Amino acid sequence: MDLNTVWFLLVGVLISGYAVLDGFDLGVGVLHLFAKSDEERDVHVAAIGPVWDGNEVWLLTGGGALFAAFPVVYATVFSGFYLALMLLLVALILRAVSMEFRHGLDSPRWRRVFDWSFGVGSLLPSILFGVAVGNVLRGVPLTAEHEWAGSFLGLLNPYSVLVGLVSLAMFVMHGALYLRMKSEGALHERMGKVAVGAWAAFLAVYGIATVATFLVSPFLFEKVAAKPVFWALIALLAAGLFTIPRATRAGRSGTAFLASSATIVASIFLAATSLYPRLVPSLGGLWNSLDIYNSASSPKTRTVMLVIALLGMPLVLVYTAVVYRIFKGKVRPGQAYGAEPTAAEQAGIRAVQTR
């Protein structure tokens, strides 16, 4: 295993970490559009409020790793996906602002505006991330100089939109399972049904997308069956998909969530295994693709950045574990993220401060 492959794996780990962690945030945001009451919406936002910003660190780290190790890919993809990425950025900002501002005024209309903003700001990234992956799997138009030669509307091709629906169903399933762990009562029970329904939808669109991939990008299946890691990932994916509905119906919410996480990781690494060693296939001919060798930075840069990554990643993992441990447990109606503390909570704070 050379340094280029190590960085390929590291970028994959960071992307998978983001999909698992911020994936349930996005799923909860989409489900927010269908909440039945203000109390449920409070639970939705409070469930992810303490952790969403830490989860997005993985996206920033993944982008930084891609820039450090494969700057040509970073430049080509970001220039080609520029408008789509701006739309994604606006949606993510809208989602963050909505969570912070929805209790800024004691007004139903004010909260309604930011509740819809939160939902839409979660729905768009859930689809756009999949659309981006779909375009990479399909191949992107590149010149001989590895410059982007496509258009924004070209990104919205049927295959990539189909992969966008795969990511949407996957995140909704993941978000419903997380909400089930964090809620009680009627919401807890309903999220179990929503999770199983989203699981069925994900299974259907993932199967359709797999067949479509074979027709659109048959090169992804060349020699992949000879890789032992491919069959290990297939086994992990099958185990995750088999466990999700059974654990959910049995009331084992934590097991179901872990199975959903394993499903997401397996799906991403199956795509990565099929691409390897390519990073961005060329639509005009695979000979012109960007791979882990012709798009890499200098060996010295990759070595130095790998040391930095190996020092920094444990800190991110420890921070993530501590935050989730502090905020573990159920979220109840009335515990709205961003709202002013209740009289009882203020009394408790004052009691702590006077000790």
Description:
The protein has 13 helices and 2 strands, in the order H-H-H-H-H-H-H-H-H-H-H-E-E-H-H. It has a two-stranded antiparallel sheet. The chain is mostly helical and 355 residues long. About 2% of the residues have low confidence. The termini are far apart.
Put the structure in a nutshell.
The protein has 355 residues and is mostly helical. It has 13 helices and two strands.
**Helical stretch tally:** 13
Helix/strand order: HHHHHHHHHHHEEHH
Number of discrete domains = 1
- Unreliable runs, pLDDT <50, ≥5 residues? 341-346
Number of strands: 2
Using only C-alpha atoms, the radius of gyration works out to 21 Å
Key structural traits:
355 residues; mainly alpha; 13 helices; 75% helix; globular
SSE blueprint:
Elements: H1 3-32, H2 38-48, H3 52-69, H4 71-80, H5 82-101, H6 108-138, H7 152-155, H8 158-182, H9 185-216, H10 228-249, H11 253-275, E1 278-280, E2 290-291, H12 299-326, H13 343-353
Antiparallel strand pairs: 1-2
Helix pairs in contact: 1-2, 1-3, 1-6, 1-8, 1-11, 3-4, 3-12, 5-6, 6-8, 8-9, 8-11, 9-10, 10-11
